[in-house]
Amino acid sequence: MDRHAIEALASFPFSGFRTNTAEFLLLELYWPAVLQAALGADLSAQVVPLAEADQDVGHFGTPTLLNVWLPQKGRGLKLLYNDPPEEDVAPESPLFAAVSIRQQPPGWDLPTGGQPAPATDRMEELVLIAATDPQVADAVAEAARRFLIDELPMAEMEAYCTALEAEWAAR
């Protein structure tokens, strides 16, 4: 099921995912569909998952919805759900973004799926905290393309993330 077919469903944006397993499963399909459309089939086939999506049944806030990396590029993407744990508090912005170096503890190498990698104990990572919204998904897709396809240097990507956050905060 592609991204647009998922967005057309009556229950989109799946805000009841914490208590409704069907909505959680659809949300679990949505963000990989966004990423696959952004990266294309060939590059998407090289994506290695790092963690499963978190339904956050206890409503602790900002659960991980997508956590993947491309071993050959030494870069990954982590997407968190933008929802504060207090139900009556709205997030300041529908999108936050940052880049960082993810260093694994000694002996905890990243899985490569049999692909070569520059290192398995560290990666450059784009971290996005995003609302489930088609316009936000477009911004997430563009950030993923810049980071994973265009391979912008970390300093340029940090500047892009800062500008992206400012743009979304002003909306």
- The succession of helices and strands, N to C, reads HHHEEEEEHH
Give the CA-CA distance, first to last residue. Answer: 30 Å
**Number of E strands:** 5
The geometry reads as: globular
Helix content: 25-40%
Specify Rg, calculated over alpha carbons: 16 Å
Average pLDDT reading: 92
Largest sheet: 5 strands, mixed
Give me the number of helical elements: 5
Unreliable spans are: none
Give the spatial strand order of the biggest sheet: 1-2-3-5-4
Strand share of the residues?
Answer: 15-25%
Oligomer: single chain
Structural class: alpha+beta
List keywords for this structure.
171 residues; alpha+beta; five-stranded mixed β-sheet; 5 helices
Describe this structure in words.
The structure is a single chain. By secondary structure, this protein is α+β, with helices and mostly antiparallel strands. It has 5 helices and 5 strands. The chain has helices at 3-7, 21-39, 41-44, 134-149, 154-169, and strands spanning 48-51, 64-70, 75-81, 95-103, 122-130. It has a 5-stranded mixed sheet with strand order 1-2-3-5-4. A hairpin with a 4-residue loop joins strand 2 and strand 3 (75-81). The relative contact order is 0.16. The model has no long low-confidence stretch (mean pLDDT 92).
